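Sample entry copied in:
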Amino acid sequence: MKLRTALRQFFLATIGMIGTMMTFAISAAAHTSGADVFAANCVVCHQSDGQGVQGDYPALAGTVGDDVHSRAGRAYLVQVVSFGMSGAISSQGADYNGVMQPWPQLSDAEIAAVLNYILTDFNAKLLPAGFKRYTAAEVRHLRGTPLSFDQVRAKRETIVKPLAASAMKAH
């Protein structure tokens, strides 16, 4: 079982490294569209429809729209893309224990574009009324202080737990 886990983590890390190398090759042509940034960098793990891969990569569709209801949630989305995250998380009732690689090579404008794409195309029903799209200036501000994988995961927990508690109260 330990060998299987080690092989799985090796495989996931290898995919991440390949994605990073592809990103360096592709970033010579500046991305202007969130869909292009997503296709070039995110689709390998999170799939073209944002549904992820059960047990390996969490879905982005129908999940992260809740995060932008708070300032901390908006910051977290920028930070997880910028600085990455590792460790155990739960999303939509499934457990994951992997690595979200950091994407420091993406520009502020590219991160704003890809987050806006993920939010408006895969999470439109979850967005707050009057949702404000990310701007490059907001992204630049929010990624100004580098964070470790563990710090990003801890920020996620402070956002996810209250969302889960409010969902339980609603039912």
User: Anything to note?
Assistant: DSSP finds seven helices and two strands in the chain. The longest helix spans residues 2-26.
